[in-house]
Amino acid sequence: MSDDFYDHPKFQRVGALGVALWTSSLAWSNRNLTDGVVPRGVARRLLDFEDVVAAIAAAGNAIGNGVTNGAGNRGGNPAGNPDDHAFTAAALRTATISTLIAAGLWREHPDGYLIHDYLDYQKSAEQIHAERDKNAARQRAFKERRKQARKPPPADGNDPGNGEGNGVTNPPSNGDSNGITHDVTNSPVTDAPNPNPNTPSSYEEGGERPGSEIPDDTPEREDIEQVCLALADAVEANGSRRPNITKTWRREARLLMDKDGRTVDQVLTAIAWCQADPFWRANVLSLPKLREKYDQLRLAAQRQQVAATRPPAGQSAGPGYDPTTGTDLFDRAMERAEALMKEDQ
Description:
This protein is mainly alpha-helical and 345 residues long. It folds into 3 domains: 5-122, no CATH class; 123-152; 167-312 and 321-344, no CATH class. It has 12 helices and 3 strands; from the N terminus they run αβαααββαααααααα. It has a 3-stranded antiparallel beta sheet with strand order 1-3-2. β2 (106-109) and β3 form a beta hairpin. The longest helix has 25 residues, at 125-149. It is elongated, with a radius of gyration of 32 Å. Residues 66-76, 160-216 and 315-327 have low confidence and may be disordered. Residues 129-222, 303-328 are annotated as: Disordered.
């Protein structure tokens, strides 16, 4: 419903009662998924026309404007006679429905009335049911993944598939050669280059970062679990040891969305992009690191997009090419990276 719908000539023709009945019918059809069809019985009861008539009668009595004349004019004024309210309301209801049809806002339908152009602006029942089924399947998959993630690790804490001394096992079994994960945070402790050496990362190992002054009262939230599982899955899919989802992970995920203002979709696409990039997949192995490097990831994705779209030397740029700004390049880069990861799966 547009915020200026009442300025349309059709609504000016039907008046306040017509607008009220049309709006009620739109809400009813949306809730009941009837694709704009309003049965006649429903149309008659959506608006309490008897209440309207009673209000008019009460207002007339209050101001003595000639609409009623107290008890002395009960027979000459239907609006002022409670016995005649039902008759007057029925006539008013019929007139209002006829006005909606005449204005083209409703159309006659075998089952009652049809809201004009309903499916041009509203989702159909078929679309809504399909979306609900898709969301239900996604919820079931999410709950199953969370259930699997909560399973305790093997008794010896080591991945059975890793051989001794391969640099991937945990410190108790391979302390000297463990150069990939930290025994507490699963953060990278290798000599891989830091994209921004001036950015401290000590908060991942127990320190604090901007925003950590917010109390750690992270509730159990689906969006937080979803992004934590997505990063853990991606890290594991890239051949690294699966990281543990800790309280610190959940806190940083919450701050990334609640304090930094990132949406779930933005965080998920950032995860997809960085885990598809050879450099960043080795440097973003935890949620605290993802939050710390989020803006650098965004800028890196923009640069990649600019480089990919820059025309050959001597040729002019195509429509929409702007190498100086990154208004929406990050989102597009993220979408492509996510699509590539889905194809790989």
